[in-house]
Amino acid sequence: MHILPNYKTSLLIILLFCVALQTQSQSFVYVEEKVLLDCGLPLVEIESVNGELPTCDYVTHPEGAMGEGITNATKVPGRIIIKDKDSVVYDSGPYVQKVSGMTFRIRGNTSAYHERKPYKIKLQKKSDLLLRGNEELFADKDWLFIPTGPWIEMLVGFHLSQLMGLEWTPAMKYVNLTVNKEYRGVYAIVEQVEYNERCRIKVNKETGYIIERDPYWWNEDLFFSTPDKKEYTFKYPENEDITDEQLNDIQNNTVQMEVSIQNGTYEDFIDVNSWATWLLTQDILGTWDSGGSNIFLSKNDNTNESLLKMPCIWDFDTMTKMKNDWARIHYDSFYYFPQLFASHNSTFVDTYIEKWRTVSATVFSDMNTFLDSVYQSDFGESIRITKTIEEQAFNYKGSTFEQDINGFKSWFNSRKSWLTLQINDLSSPVQNIKNQSNSYSSQKYDLMGRRVNGQYRGIVILRDGRKIVRNAR
């Protein structure tokens, strides 16, 4: 990978070639193509027909639901070109429906409110935008372009997913992105969570399905709800392809699964190992967001032998936020994990503990080794240079790449110690977890749903729903 030979020289080039353009938001800039290519990351250029940009309307949740989202997202046709070093390595061609080119639209929920929008790309002809050298295996029409926050959080989260042995980890690649010549910063091209019998989530094409426990159900055309008020939306089949018979079958199976968790017969409905692995991965990452933790379930077919799996993790923008605490989804009533921990059937707890014993000896050291390798790699050097370009282009100052790496290493080191103590306390699973689950009702939250300590003054909501007013002294 070609790297600019002199870091100070690269900064000078950046200053010379960052020229502001007047745009709708008046915040995006033009950066010379050579500067971006010399960073070492691939450069993706989106050229829309007539320079049009996708738009959307913003909506908020109805009473009793949560979150903000978007609606009326327009699809804009165009062309996508990927360059690496001095070569064009992919060109979709101009937009011709069902022949060449692509459409793109704004995607996401709260992430769509940011100035740097996440996009969904739909190619007119299948291809592998990650350029892995095997079109037959990896070609697809649907791709996500997600702007980076903390720079390598997605890379870290997906690498842990692989180490933990989750069924599927989305592949991704960091790129610089321009849209109609305007520099949008570093984005990740990511495989979308969807059915693909070759390279994504694999289920029976005719009778399998993928659903999501979705806090944004209210913003979807099709959803279903269980008696415990858990709402689900569809990843596969597509909404327009689902028959009434399929919908009833999927809903009935999900309701039966819910009942089985409540009465302790859940092994007949869920793949316990995948559920325990998914939760332990969230606990290692310390994910704060429970409602938006992207809970996907897959079922291979409609037979009784096929169990509901949790095949993948997604969305890492609130990881490492739960210091000295479980991931919120571990104890939040948004999903069934508190009930599984409190069940008289200890299979889930036993599986969770055994998974910890299996991975804890190596996964933390492996993550630190991975972080060191990223820091020392050509990719790491490309990120260092590109961070500087992005900060210059968008007029902000963030943490250094070294600080990011060291922050994650510090997290994994301290997380291992904390989890070791907590999971050791589960050595007598049923009784200890029942006690732990019962203690959740005394945990305190402010009106924004944030956990607070015992010294908090103001209105406090307990987990069991009681409200207490605590006056300042």
Report on the structure:
The structure is a single chain. The chain is an alpha+beta fold. Among the domains are: 7-191, no CATH class; 443-473, no CATH class. The chain has 13 helices and 19 strands. The strands form five sheets. A seven-stranded mixed barrel has the order 3-6-8-9-10-12-11. A four-stranded antiparallel beta sheet has the order 14-15-13-16, with helices on one face. The protein has a three-stranded antiparallel beta sheet with strand order 17-18-19, with no helix packed on it. β4 and β5 form a beta hairpin. It is globular.
Tell me the helix content: 25-40%
How many individual β-strands? 19
Contiguous low-pLDDT stretches (5 residues minimum) are 1-26, 429-442
* Structure classification: alpha+beta
Overall radius of gyration:
23 Å
How are the strands of the biggest sheet laid out side by side? 3-6-8-9-10-12-11
Q: What's the shape?
A: globular
Strand content range? 15-25%
Count up the helices: 13
How confident is the prediction overall: mean pLDDT?
A: 87
Largest sheet: 7 strands, mixed, barrel
- N- to C-terminal separation? 62 Å
Structure, briefly:
By secondary structure, the protein is an alpha+beta fold. The chain has 13 helices and 19 strands.
Summarize the helices and strands and which ones pair or pack.
Blueprint: H1 7-17, E1 19-20, E2 29-30, H2 33-38, E3 43-48, E4 57-60, E5 68-71, E6 76-84, E7 87-91, E8 102-106, E9 119-127, H3 135-138, E10 140-147, H4 153-164, E11 172-179, E12 182-191, E13 209-213, E14 224-225, E15 231-236, H5 244-263, H6 272-285, E16 295-299, H7 328-331, H8 337-342, H9 347-359, H10 363-376, H11 378-394, H12 401-424, H13 429-439, E17 444-445, E18 458-462, E19 467-470
Parallel strand pairs: 3-11
Antiparallel strand pairs: 1-2, 3-6, 4-5, 6-7, 6-8, 8-9, 9-10, 10-12, 11-12, 13-15, 13-16, 14-15, 17-18, 18-19
Helix pairs in contact: 1-11, 4-6, 4-10, 6-9, 10-11, 10-12
